[in-house]
Amino acid sequence: MIHLKKYLLNYFVKLIHVSLVQLLTKPIEWVLTGLIYLYKYAISPWLGNHCRYTPTCSTYCIEAIKKYGPFKGTWVGIKRIASCNPRGGSGYDPVK
Question: Looking at the 3D structure of the chain, how many domains does it have?
């Protein structure tokens, strides 16, 4: 009986921790993806399509944020944008 109580207590502590992390990170994720969508549909058409990769860097950033969360996803996106230049790579490069 004691083991069951410890198990249930650990289960609920982990559940609360996960819920708190999601509660804090989801709004950040929404803001970041919203800013990227704003750039993608309001600013990028005026600058022209110059991305050397498929998917585009903005789409890659959105996918990375959804896959890795707002902090690691943003870092992965920044590294991708930094490599999008004439000396960098090109072609198909999905989020890993």
Answer: 1
